[in-house]
Amino acid sequence: MFSGLIDLPWWGYVLVTLALTHVTIVSVTVFLHRHQAHRALELHAIPSHFFRFWLWLTTGMVTKEWTAIHRKHHAKCETEEDPHSPQVKGIHKVLWEGAELYREEAKNSETLERYGHGTPDDWLEHKVYKHTVLGISIMLVINLVLFGPIGLTMWAVQMIWIPFWAAGVVNGLGHYWGYRNFDCADAATNLVPWGILIGGEELHNNHHSFATSAKMSAKWYEFDIGWMYIRLLEMMGLAKVRRVIPTPRFHDSKTVVDLETLQAVITHRYDVMTRYAASLKCMCREEVERLLGASGNKFDAKALRRFVLSDQPLEDDKRRELEGALEHSHVLATIKSMREELSSIWARSTASSEQLLDQLQDWVARAEQSGIKQLQEFSAKLRRYAM
Known about the structure:
Elements: H1 10-37, E1 41-43, H2 45-58, H3 63-75, H4 86-89, H5 91-106, H6 109-115, H7 123-127, H8 132-147, H9 150-172, E2 194-195, H10 204-209, E3 223-224, H11 225-235, E4 239-241, E5 249-250, H12 259-267, H13 269-293, H14 301-309, H15 316-326, H16 330-345, H17 353-368, H18 373-383, E6 385-386
Parallel strand pairs: 2-3
Antiparallel strand pairs: 1-4, 5-6
């Protein structure tokens, strides 16, 4: 029986399979995600063509389809139009049937037309890469020739790697379970601080907070292996980074809220909201416990704290219940309303810089007059944001 051109011990086949799937992960995160979908970096033709060719062999995914679906996910995140939100479709559906959700959305011509602009539109894309079954079939033949019958198993692992890890785990668990560095508007989470197995995509909350950043790690203890490969390509002159997560700066002596403060606050808005939640967390917990101790008050304490300090989506019945609880606490109502007013400053795109500055100055003044010590301390911190 033909055993293939390459004979390896069992662990050798495991290592080769992991290496091949890792190349696929890198192709997805660097080329499809950061370069094509978000334009966070520019890629030279050499790595671009290699990544396209490799993805054709190992996934059969079409660049325009993947890019369009992912852009729509960001534009419609956690809504009925989101192609794969576990908050809407359920965690089990997205985790185990993420690939089916992808294929279903890929049939939507409106999605491709609206969100698929700027993707490759050359001869290769139309004459070669559109034949997705041909690509993965060639990969199967290569595996069988090189490794013999075990090549079929290796090929099967390659075929399920992206559907499970990217379409299932990242799109599913990445919006359901994990920790959050930034209080972004959707439910995106970081799965673990070491983005190795899925190329850095594990740092999903960081990505949704700063979608156009080529680097997905934000804290000193986080590692994004996809960023490492991008830096290597950049050193070889094969890539150029366009944007990364901005690092906030503070002028300790600054006391006046001016246009520079406004620009810095808008630029670092997710950092601002995260610090706001952290600053008011203890006060919020104490006030919720006080409410629970009062006779006749029954509500979900954890949900109420989350409702006051974040924008995570809630069902209508739960929202009405928590809004009713706020009627019994001026402190919690103030913390929530001030948070919403602060976040609305960068949401008002039609207002002039002068109008936004007036709103920010008014917000700081009212925070200082609120009588809530933690809110006053946060307003002093807000004054010191700088570009």
